[in-house]
Amino acid sequence: MLNIGDKAPDFNLNNQAEKPVKLSDFKGRKLVIYFYPKDQTPGCIKEACSFRDNIELFREHNIDVIGVSIDSEKSHQNFIAKQNLNFPLLADVDKVMVNDYEVWGEKLLYGRKYMGTFRKTFLINEDGLIHKIYEKVRVASHAEDVLNDWGIN
To answer: What CA–CA distance (Å, rounded) separates 128 from 29?
Structure first.
């Protein structure tokens, strides 16, 4: 089980442009890693747009934002274009990162059980340690909640 203060699990995934991104790319910077279930679904659109609309505040404070789902690079390209997103999305098609960050598991929808990605966010500090874990996310205001937790209002 991942906890606050633990070293963030390393990763090496392609972004929407099929360029590899790894945890060490963010060394010395704060990082928001948010996991979401699926591109172009209502809750995921709201959450992504919350980060999009606040990205300048994150950047002003040297905080990077990345979204992660099991969707493909092509799906991410379409999502970014359609929603005008201004931060990278990582494609975890082999479900490595979602397993390492413990966000993959059994879900329940309308009485039906299935495997999927939990909506969960990790704040990683400059030393690569987990600063905060959001187990429950309010999609429409998630970026503002994260900014508040970094002490930015």
So the answer is: 9
In the annotation, is 44 catalytic? Answer: yes
Q: Is the pTM of this model over 0.85?
A: yes
User: pLDDT tens digits, residue range 50-91?
Assistant: 999 999 999 999 999 999 999 999 999 999 999 999 999 999
**Secondary structure (3-state) at 68:** strand
**From 44, 63, 68, 91, the catalytic residue:** 44
* Domains of the chain with CATH codes: 29-149 (3.40.30.10)
- Cα separation, 102 vs 100, in Å, equals 5
Q: How far is CA 42 from the centre of its chain?
A: 16
Measured distance CA(120)–CA(53) in Å, rounded? 19
* For residue 153, pLDDT beyond 80: no
